[in-house]
Design goal:
single chain; about 110 residues; alpha+beta; High-Potential Iron-Sulfur Protein, Chain A; 3 strands; about 10% strand; globular
């Protein structure tokens, strides 16, 4: 009987530890899910020339744009927190951007 008591204690201890760790594991995705999606009409988006679809950029009008660059390959895009094709971006605090988007703050991820 003493063996069962120890086993239950170990089980409860493990369960309690798991509950304590769970919020930390979900923090990134919860933060991304709670953030508003950046729209092209947002003043901060307009200031940096943000577009939701980088493939539609006219490179003649947007000299800073390099073909093939998009948010998902930018150092400011927080890939680890990506959910549903959107993730937080350091250039737009509190907002999530489209992985296929682009803005003038684009900085290629180091190789």
């Amino acid at each position: 009987m003493n063996q069962n008591t120890m086993s239950r204690r170990a089980l409860l201890r493990g369960f309690a530890t798991g509950l304590a760790v769970l919020p930390a594991l979900q923090l990134g995705s919860a933060a991304a899910a709670d953030a508003a999606t950046l729209s092209e009409t947002d003043p901060s988006a307009q200031a940096l020339g943000y577009v939701i679809d980088a493939t539609k950029i006219n490179s003649a009008k947007e000299a800073a744009y390099k073909a093939g660059s998009a948010c998902h390959s930018c150092a400011l895009y927080q890939t680890a927190q990506e959910s549903g094709g959107h993730a937080p971006c350091a250039a737009f605090p509190g907002k999530v951007v489209a992985s296929g988007g682009w803005c003038r703050a684009y900085a290629a991820k180091p190789a």
